[in-house]
Amino acid sequence: MYLLFLVWYPALQGLYMSFFEWPLLGDQSYVGIGNYEYLLTWEAFRRSIFTTVIYSLQTVGHLVLGTVMGLIVWRQKRFKTVTSLMFLIPILLPPLVTGTLFRHVLEPDLGPFFALLVDFGLLKSPIYWSNDGNLALLVITLVGVWTWSSFVFLLVYASLESIPDAHIEASRLYGAGAVQRLRRVILPQIKTALLIALVLRIIRNLGKVAQPYQITRGGPGFDTTVLGLLVYRLAWERGELGLAFAGSIVLGLITFVFIALFMWQFERSSEEVAA
Amino acid sequence: MNVFATLRRQISGIDILQWCITSVLVATFALPVLYAFSVSIRPSSEVFGPVHLIPKEPTIEPWMQFLADAGINFLNSIFIATGVVILTLLVAVPGAYAFSRMEFPGRKLLFYLVILIMLVPVVMLVVPVVQIWRDFGLFNTLSGIWLAVMVSQMPVAIWILRDNFQGLPPNIEEAAQVYGCTQFEAFVRVILPLASPAILAVGFLTFLGAWNEFLFSNILTRSTGPRPVMVTLFSLLGGDRAVPWNYVMAGSFAIAVPPATFYLLARRYLEQALSF
Q1: Nearest to B123 among A101, A105, A228 (CB)
Q2: Using CA atoms, how far apart are residues A156 and A247, in angstroms rounded to an integer?
Q3: Which of A43, A238, B46, B219 has its Cα between 20 and 30 A from that of B204?
Q4: 3-class SS at A240?
Q5: Can you give the pLDDT at residue B276?
Q6: Running DSSP on this structure, what letter comes out for residue A215?
Q7: Residue A22 confidence (pLDDT)
Q8: Residue of B111, B127, B230 best to disrupt the A interface, most CBs of A under 10 A
Q9: What is the pLDDT of residues A102-154, one digit of tens each?
Q10: Any idea which of A131-135, A165-169, B221-225 has the lowest mean pLDDT?
Q11: Please, are residues A222 and A199 in contact by the beta-carbon 8 Å criterion?
């Protein structure tokens, strides 16, 4: 009971606040839907919707890469533990740390990545991605793919391991090729895990803050400010709590669609377990 | 001749492809981390210049310096994470037990409300939490962070524990009660020991989450308050000054050591508790 209070009270309080102009310290005044009107006409807000959509596309990368990683380790006969530990490196490190790490590795002048590319003659000069909104967005998205594919890998690998060997053997006996086996036998078995991974990842990716914040600080300007980050910057850098929460209501609405999907899937899979 | 034929039969095209992908992936995951680690044990003079993986004059100077500067923040992080683990377990264990064994109206609805919290982006809570914490004088205090971080860790804890309690046979408490235990005693003496692997796993997970937490701890503390080391790392990269990369990397790895070790230690328990 106490817990529910602790979470739902802030949420409701926030909804109430979103109708006010609410500075961090000092008096609030009622502005009605003014905050929402302001947001909708604000260039940075529109940009951040776009950014959020692009940034969320990394979910596709997570699923593909995670499944490939899962299949690889599952097929391996030796060194399973070593490979899977290697694949888990990204989520062993705190997101803020991986953010810091890539900020150095990808730094145009000092970092090793561009230096190597230039040395090998693949590039004439390093790319100054942090000054270009779209390139910076690409960078945070790719780093996102690097970091959280491992999560999908964990789920997929666990469900691959639970496929009975007999199924695979049977398909081999009936003369199914590798591709056929993947499509007809393996994919249906891990479908539930993939769906859960998909929805969980989308929801989490929508609300990501720490890692992109550390890499680009949301800049240049507001160009890489995903919605969650927009909310955070409004609250932390500007102290505009009312406006910030109006932003998070928008974020919440988008997320809610996916939450509904998750719930639906969750219900179905727990019914399967019960049956 | 024969040997080659056998070899070819054993190594099919798909195996070669698999090994290629594996090596590329492992390199992609391991190289940036290795390189960054190598930066963290170099003297400042060696951070720039031609790219090389193995430092010419390895030194632990950056590590020592970071630990000296941020020692107090490390302590804060430890206090925060430990406190959150204790509080979360105190609420989650009885809560999950209630969800799994007791009948009360609206049980399913309440459980869904708890699970929902897990899915709501934490950022949404940051704004109102700041305001409320100010009103209640929790701003910039250790207990304030405990409460805030606890909220985000609780749902997963309850979820895992409930699943675990439900997996235990329903009549063991009854059996214990037949032998003269009260319901509470049955819970403490029978259920808790049986569920201890799951409780341990939840403890580990919560510690990881609390250690890695950044949003609340950044916004709820000032530099004079109980600021965890994660926030220190964040503020190192602020502004436009030149960044002492060897120092920052040493800090990053120092911060990553506790959660990584914890994860590796708890891996077995986690896999048991999380398989679904």
Answers
A1: A228
A2: 34
A3: B219
A4: strand
A5: 45
A6: H
A7: 46
A8: B127
A9: 888 887 777 778 778 877 767 777 777 777 778 888 888 888 888 888 888 88
A10: B221-225
A11: no
Out of B114, B129, B215, name the one closest to residue A3 (CB).
B114
Best to test chain B binding among A93, A180, A201, A236 (most B CBs inside 10 Å): A93
Q: Residue B12: how many CB atoms within 10 A of its CB?
A: 11
Q: Counting Cβ atoms within 10 Å, is residue B181 exposed (0-12), middle (13-18) or buried (19+)?
A: middle
Contact of A156 with A66, CB cutoff 8 Å: yes
**DSSP codes of every residue in A55-122:** HHTHHHHHHHHHHHHHHHHHH-SS-HHHHHHHHHHHHHS-HHHHHHHHHHHT-TTTSHHHHHHHHTTS
User: B-chain residues within 8 Å CB-CB of A236?
Assistant: 218-219
Q: Inform me whether the C-beta atom of residue A186 falls under 8 Å from chain B C-beta atoms.
A: no
User: What is the least distance, in Å, from the CA of A199 to any CA of chain B?
Assistant: 10
- Alpha-carbon distance A248 to B147, whole Å? 21
Supply B188's token pair.
């403490």
Distance of CA B117 to the CA centre of its chain: 18
Q: Which residue has the higher pLDDT, B1 or B31?
A: B31
> Which of A5-14, A124-133, A249-258, B61-70 shows the lowest mean pLDDT across its residues?
A5-14
Q: CB–CB of B249/B36 below 8 Å?
A: yes
Secondary structure, 3-state, B201-234: HHHHHHHHHHHHCCHHHHHCCCCCCCCCHHHHHH
CB-based contact A86 B26, cutoff 8 Å: yes
